[in-house]
Design brief:
The protein has about 250 residues and is of the alpha/beta class. The chain has one domain: Alpha-Beta Barrel (TIM Barrel), CATH 3.20.20. Helix content is about 40%, strand content about 20%. The protein has 9 helices and 8 strands. Strands 1-2-3-4-5-6-7-8 form an 8-stranded parallel beta barrel, surrounded by 7 helices. Helix 2 runs parallel beside helix 9 (about 235-245), helix 6 (about 155-165) packs parallel to helix 7 (about 185-195) and helix 8 packs parallel to helix 9. It is globular.
Length: about 250
């Protein structure tokens, strides 16, 4: 089964899913042998690798992903910041286009540079419309991409961008408050986007507690992405399990 089909099956079976984000800039490769099995045992549905990754080079990323895969049977999905973060050791890659911005580098240029590498390595691409929402502070993705986030009260702007992702043929719309966001994507925005489009919604950024994750699922998120809530924690299985209980609806 390909990773995209697995993700759809997760929604069908569990009502919603939990994507655990490992950021190589924040979690050392030496920690993975201890951390990764706990992520799987705790009930996460897949592992994303990337996020605010900016300084990590391709060779180190290859080694990092190899170590992740040695310690889990879950799908390992790249969440790249640019085309240099495409690795042969991933199962799939979120093929992101930053639709909410107007910087051509992140709308299409990085995608054109990365596409031949994805084909060369035989990685499964999962096209995804990436929509940045104001998270209450200047986040890494906003700074690096030189992109203005959608204001939190501009629901229609988010809806129209998500619909554009669907009409482009993308598989997911990703509403992102950004790594380290002070506040997550508003519930009203999630529910409005959910009722307006037909493709699944991923929500990330600022989800610091199981109750917040549950809130976003109940608002309409099909997947939530959580990573920062676990930073510095070595014994994380119980924490992952608590998030999982709040995320899986069935």
């Amino acid at each position: 089964m390909d990773v995209y089909s697995y993700l759809l099956q997760t929604i069908e079976k569990k009502g919603a899913g939990f994507l655990f984000l490992l950021d190589p800039d924040k979690t050392d490769i030496k920690q993975l042998k201890a951390i990764v099995p706990q992520i799987e045992k705790g009930g996460a549905d897949a592992i994303l690798v990337g996020g605010s990754t900016y300084t990590y080079d391709n060779d180190n990323l290859d080694r990092y992903l190899k170590e992740v895969k040695l310690n889990t049977t879950l799908p390992v999905i790249l969440f790249p910041a640019n085309h240099l973060q495409v690795s042969k050791n991933a199962d799939a890659v979120l093929f992101l286009s930053l639709l909410s911005g107007r910087n051509p580098l992140y709308l299409v240029e990085e995608q054109v540079r990365g596409a031949p590498l994805i084909k060369k390595y035989g990685i499964e691409p999962i096209p995804c419309g990436y929509i940045l929402v104001d998270g209450g502070c200047l986040t890494s993705v906003a700074y690096i991409s030189n992109t203005l986030p959608i204001p939190r009260d501009r629901i229609n702007i988010a809806k129209f961008h998500a619909l554009t992702a669907q009409y482009f043929g993308m598989k997911f719309a990703y509403l992102e408050a950004g790594s380290g966001a002070e506040v997550p994507v508003p519930d009203e925005m999630i529910s409005s986007v959910k009722s307006y489009i037909d493709i699944p919604i991923i929500v990330g950024g600022g989800l610091k507690s199981p109750s917040l994750a549950k809130e976003k699922i109940e608002a309409g998120a099909d997947f939530v992405v959580i990573g920062n809530a676990f930073e510095g924690e070595m014994k994380i299985e119980a924490m992952v399990a608590e998030f999982t209980r709040n995320i899986h609806l069935r």
